[in-house]
Amino acid sequence: MKSHAKAVVIGGGVVGCSVLYHLARAGWRDVLLIERSELTSGSSWHAAGGFHTLNGDPNVARLQAYTVQLYKEIEELSGQSCGLHLTGGVMLADSPERMDFLRLAHAKGRYLGMETELITPSEAKAMFPLMDETHFVGAMWDPVEGHLDPSGTTHAYARAARKLGAEIVLRNRVTELTQEPDGTWNVVTEQGTVKAEHVVNCGGLWAREVGRMVGLELPLLAMEHMYLLTEPMPEVEEFNRSTGREMIGVIDFKGEIYTRQERNGILLGTYEKAAKPWSPRQTPWDFGHELLEPDIDRIAPSLEVGFRHFPALQNAGIKQIINGPFTFAPDGNPLVGPVQGLTNFWCACAVMAGFSQGGGVGLALANWMVDGDPGFDVWGMDVARFGEWASLRYTNAKVRENYSRRFSIRFPNEELPAARPAQTTPLYDIMTRDNNAVMGDSWGLETPLWFAPKGTAPKDIVSFHRSNDFEHVGEEVRAVRERVGVTEIANFAKYEVTGPGAEDFLNRLMTNSMPKTGRIVLSPMLNEFGKLIGDFTIAKAQEERFMIWGSSAAQVYHMRWFEKHLPGDGSVRIHRFDQTLVGLSIAGPQSRAVLEKLADIDVSRDAFRFMDFRQMAVAGCPCMVNRLTYTGDLGYEIWMPPAYQRQVYMAIKEAGAPFGIADFGMRALLCMRLEKNFPTWFRELRPIYGPYEGGMGRFVKLEKNDFIGREAAAREQAEGPKLRRVSFVVAVSDADVMGDEPIWARVNGREFGTVAKSHGFGAQRFGADGGEIEGRAAPDGSGGASSVRGIEDGAWRVVGWVTSGGYAHYVRKSMAQGYVPAELAEDESEGLFEIEILGHRRPARINIDPPFDPVGERMRG
Ligand SMILES: Cc1cc2nc3c(=O)[nH]c(=O)nc-3n(C[C@H](O)[C@H](O)[C@H](O)COP(=O)(O)OP(=O)(O)OC[C@H]3O[C@@H](n4cnc5c(N)ncnc54)[C@H](O)[C@@H]3O)c2cc1C
Description:
By secondary structure, the protein is an alpha+beta fold. It is 26% helix and 27% strand. The chain contains 20 helices and 39 strands. The strands form seven sheets. Strands 4, 5, 6, 12, 13, 14, 15, 16 and 17 form a nine-stranded mixed β-sheet that branches. Strands 1, 2, 8, 9, 10, 11, 18 and 19 form an eight-stranded mixed β-sheet that branches. The protein has a six-stranded mixed β-sheet with strand order 29-30-31-28-22-32, sandwiched between helices. The radius of gyration is 27 Å and the shape is globular. The termini are far apart. The protein binds flavin-adenine dinucleotide. Flavin-adenine dinucleotide binds next to helix 1, strand 3, strand 12, strand 17 and helix 9.
């Protein structure tokens, strides 16, 4: 074994081999994979080998599409077959709700370039005669599904990597990881120590143990998973003989079952409700190529449904039951990327569908390691999306919940109960017990969503349509717009940046100029490719001290970026408060009158202006107050240590009582921002958009200094954005957009090729000179250009996608935000756009000026 390597990849499952291959393909040839035993000695060897492109997160779906396309490439390079069977598959809907779910998935596929098709149960039966179609109401056909040989595929990656110069050492366990002061890793193994610049944890079933070697507790857990193989079935043989085709893959959501043909019988796997973790605390190092004891009772309820839905199975003999463990993160998506607080320690773990996702994970990580950026939007699988609250117990509860719900519908207004409450503020009891709040989970923190009337159950009725919160959220909005409301805002990220270098540091990171003392600015943050990676409210509290507020879910993600760019001379310190600083917001025309009663200083319009920041006592408690709110109304954000929150809240309620103050929740807040056309982070603003595309251009001061991403932003401005974020008013009556719906336009033959080029994976594979980085395939296999599919329907064409929306109660309009080609972004005419909601195309009209308070008199008032 060599003694030095640029990167050491720990683990020779399908994921480790894919990472190794992609690193070598990206030009890092001095890379070494170390495997404890033989290749595929974790989950990879006994996988069912199924692959598909569908995923709830469109960005992860694209990675899956890339993975499937990659197999031909590695087969050719390695000479090793992956045993591909591209059979296609159907998903069966047994209820109208499930059919709505499939309609949503199908609609989303329109702009992802997927050629799915909604079909009838009889059409599904023609493809898969084993089913009894009377149990179903419809189905969706996806041609890009199939299965492969898991071992062959892993070896194909490994051989292809070796051909490019990478090395693999087998039967050699990594036992310890230490780091030198200069950042070099000592990878201590049974066969000696390798010095490496980078270490990648692809430990699969042992990823937790590898993480613990560097003091990390990664949020992942292995679950037992069973599938069975039948004896040869005459029905299968007859189908093969009469059609000359293999049987397709099938997902039966009701039975929590997936099936496909295996030889001349059927393979049937389940994601059963009675999910069982495996090795919940520690994976034994001596676990090898053995299987777990099958437990047929656990999967019996699923099998019963399966036997009803696929009657031929009742007569089939069971040849073998496989029970093996594989790992999941709490939300079921992989954990990929650099770990905050460590240098050059990377993760590619919790990949639960290694044969659908392994290629995309390998590409993203290799891009990240080689170029410093994953190359496209990987938030859905970024290891930084979990906080400290994702402990061993939290993970255990969430992974079990996620596994047992794998084939369940997640409704847009559905909050999942496992592992809650994780974190609460001092107001939790008041909100739940006294105020009848319906609570939601906001990055591990219990947060009021809306307030149910006294005497009714504080519960959402989950639905794709407007639901039981509709009228009550409307009341909350009207209370704010007409009187005054108060809400908790503890679920924001809060940071403090201090030190003599603080202002220069922020000027280098942020696109906007820093404010004067006592003032606030809003500022996007860009990566080197000029794409949006953050959006902050920044106040200068005093010389050398700034307060920053941002998206709570992005706290670790942003800290990782901040720390990466901290100057080495100690002139800047950055502190993340998390829940050691909490907040309340009061908003509405009477909010100043409420604050006046609680403040000891002058808070009149001229003394405390819009976008001012003050450190002041509120109800006698030391607070920081921002004169702005996300409601777009006159209002204040008030920040305090948790010990004061209850007192300030009670005082606000008392002072506000004569004005008819009302509590309002996150849903009302989000709805008020819609009528102001305000964007949200992770929906409208994401790393696939430039600042001008996102409508954030006024916060970009190109002339101020050389901030990160300036050059690319200047180019975007000079050339003009290809896409533009727009707001729509949509003609609907009972179901608003949820996000990810396709936007159709009556284009009458006009072309939008530039849009296709600017969006998607290709968008960020641009070098500093604006040209595509050569030799680096984008996940759509196109070498850089991803496309909004030219789905045509007469003069109509899918030209964009919705990012979020809902009902804007005060202006009484259903609204949506999304991205369309810049050429169309200023056309407010009727009849130009339609948005596809639950299978129906609804007329939509661009609304350039916010429908509420278009000139901002209210918030400045
Ligand atoms: C029954 C079953 C059915 C499945 N069906 C499918 C399917 O149909 N489709 C699909 O896509 N996925 C399926 N999966 C999941 C799939 O197997 C996993 O997604 C995939 O195997 C994960 O690969 P990995 O490389 O991350 O981990 P692993 O395969 O667990 O590999 C990790 C490797 O790291 C090595 N290692 C760990 N620690 C060290 C160390 N300290 N030093 C050296 N080496 C180390 C291990 O020996 C192991 O070889 C299934 C899994 C099971 C169990």
